[in-house]
TrEMBL record:
It comes from the Eukaryota. Keywords: Hydrolase. This is Carboxylic ester hydrolase. InterPro entries: AB_hydrolase_fold, CarbesteraseB, Carboxylesterase_B_AS, Type-B_Carboxylest/Lipase. Residues 1-20 have a biased composition (Basic and acidic residues). Residues 36-383, 385-494 form the Carboxylesterase type B domain. PANTHER family: CARBOXYLESTERASE. It comes from Cladorrhinum samala. Its EC number is 3.1.1.-. Signal peptide: none annotated. One of its GO terms (molecular function) is hydrolase activity.
């Protein structure tokens, strides 16, 4: 069953179509050993080349902050001073931040397509660690004196799951295909570790997971030039919770005094108005954190600071197991389960984004806002061979499409160049059941170039769609609004106008 978007209801068609660029059409410069050792202000970083993507230099698991353990647990990130001995071996992916995968209720992610999880079928990572604040750089071989644009990717996962070693989201094939940009992926703290909202923390330091994201962007600003990156062309791209994060970033760092760093924003299936990610303002008593503290005997301390210090000493494995049990309770509908997400601190996250936009408190850089035709499918109960189409369509519109229209309108009214897309692809190696269609996140393998890696080869149309999406984002990173308009994609004058990707290449439509 397809969504109403795929059915074509409520759509006005235009004839504009984008050009098809063949996948794997780029040529690459030979990579020699010297280009795999990069001198940064923190020390020399030694990378590697994988035979399957032999035109890509990979620098993996680079710490961008000190280990957030013991006295640093729940606290804002502290930048790395230097690498031990002035050298860093960056030839293997490291652990992601503490998290857990809940098997019930069944979803497309835990039943059908496991490559969206850390423990995908190629098993890139079998462990997590609290010492997880690292990033990875994927760069082509760049001639001396040339600088390439940089795309920094924020992973999704409801601020609870995810990391830089999700199999479908490793960008080496994308960089191999385009040879046009550097891509940086990174971990940030999740669940209670990233969003503790403890009474013992100051109001500007409660969303430490978002501060991790900022610290990663600052590391890129300070060091990416050594890898051939252009610090004046840095695009922040997020998906789902990562898209919400990118939207929040656009409001939090809106003036030159706040050093926005980024020159473009891309939000895929998530905005500042996404209902399920609206920051909590109700936990003013810090009850969730204290509920966990009570489980470990830390709630009887005399002051919030003592409670926090006690919780910093709790074994990380015990914390993870407790939070897993709470997530199971939450997912099965039990009352009283604790859950940790960002809070409105009016520093990193604000309470009223409509008001912020009306006051012009938003970073005015070109912005792409996208949604998927079946975004709502993973958010409704999954049956053996179908979902309730009416409920799924309602979830798609309420959670994704309508908030995206409003978020686009905020930016258009502020004079920001906005580009809207709707992904409608339904390819069997990504969507194993036809009714899944273009579900939440299903475009990511096509952008990262991993669509044909795990579940069978890609079709000709899928390869064409992948090449277009890869090259379009690269063009945006390279030239901003002008760069993307050169591909034939016009900026929005109407927030409902979308470019479609995934069916007969790409067309522009107005959604009604």
């Amino acid at each position: 069953m397809a969504s109403s978007f795929e059915d074509g209801k409520g759509i006005e068609n235009e004839t504009r179509r984008c050009e098809i660029s063949p996948k794997n059409s780029s040529t690459c410069n030979a990579i020699d050993g010297t280009s795999l050792s990069v001198m940064t202000r923190l020390g020399t970083i030694h990378g590697m080349v994988n035979e399957s993507t032999n035109c890509v230099r990979q620098f993996l698991h680079i710490p961008y902050a000190k280990p957030p353990t013991r006295s640093r647990r729940f606290k804002p990130p502290e930048p790395v001073d230097s690498y031990p001995g002035g050298e860093l071996d960056a030839t293997a992916l490291g652990p992601s931040c503490p998290q857990f995968l809940v098997q019930d209720p069944p979803t497309v992610y835990n039943q059908d397509v496991l490559q969206f999880n850390l423990d995908g079928l190629n098993n890139t990572s079998t462990y997590t660690s609290e010492d997880c604040l690292s990033l990875s750089v994927y760069a082509p071989s760049i001639p001396e004196g040339e600088k390439l644009p940089v795309i920094v990717f924020i992973h999704g996962g409801s601020f609870t799951f995810g990391g830089q070693d999700v199999p479908y989201q490793i960008p080496a094939h994308w960089v191999q295909n385009t040879q046009a940009q550097i891509v940086v992926t990174f971990n940030y703290r999740l669940n209670i570790f990233g969003f503790p909202n403890a009474a013992g923390l100051n109001s500007g330091g409660r969303n430490v997971g978002l501060l991790d994201q900022r610290a990663a962007v600052e590391w890129v600003r300070d060091n990416i030039g050594a890898f051939g990156g252009d610090t004046h062309r840095i695009t922040l791209w997020g998906h789902s919770a990562g898209a919400v994060s990118a939207a929040w970033y656009q409001y939090a760092y809106d003036t030159p005094e706040k050093d926005p760093i980024v020159t473009g924003i891309v939000m895929g299936s998530g905005t500042e108005l996404f209902p399920l990610a609206r920051a909590s303002t109700e936990d003013v008593a810090h009850g969730n954190f204290t509920a966990v503290a009570r489980r470990f005997g830390c709630d009887a301390k005399q002051t919030p600071e003592e409670e926090l210090k006690c919780m910093q000493e709790v074994d990380v494995n015990d914390l993870e197991e407790f939070l897993k049990q709470e997530m199971v309770r939450l997912m099965t509908g039990e009352n009283g389960a604790v859950y940790f997400t960002p809070v409105a601190d009016n520093v990193t996250v604000f309470e009223d984004y409509k008001e912020r936009a009306e006051q012009g408190h938003i970073l005015k850089v070109p912005t792409i806002i996208g949604t998927d035709a079946n975004d709502g499918v993973p958010f409704v109960p999954l049956g053996s061979n179908e979902v309730n189409k009416t409920v799924a369509d309602a979830a798609t519109r309420m959670l994704f499409f309508c908030p995206a229209v409003d978020a686009a309108s905020f930016r258009i009214e502020n004079g920001i160049p906005v580009f809207r897309y709707l992904y409608v692809g339904n390819f069997t190696n990504i969507s194993p059941a036809a009714f899944l269609g273009a579900y939440h996140g299903s475009e990511l393998p096509l952008i990262f170039g991993t669509d044909g890696e795990f579940r069978g080869p890609s079709t000709k149309e899928e390869n064409e769609t992948s090449a277009i999406m890869e090259n379009t984002l690269a063009a945006f990173a390279s030239g901003g609004a002008a760069g993307i308009e050169k591909t034939g994609w016009p900026r929005c004058e109407d927030a409902r106008t979308c470019r479609w990707f995934g069916i007969s290449c790409c067309f522009d439509h107005r959604m009604t």
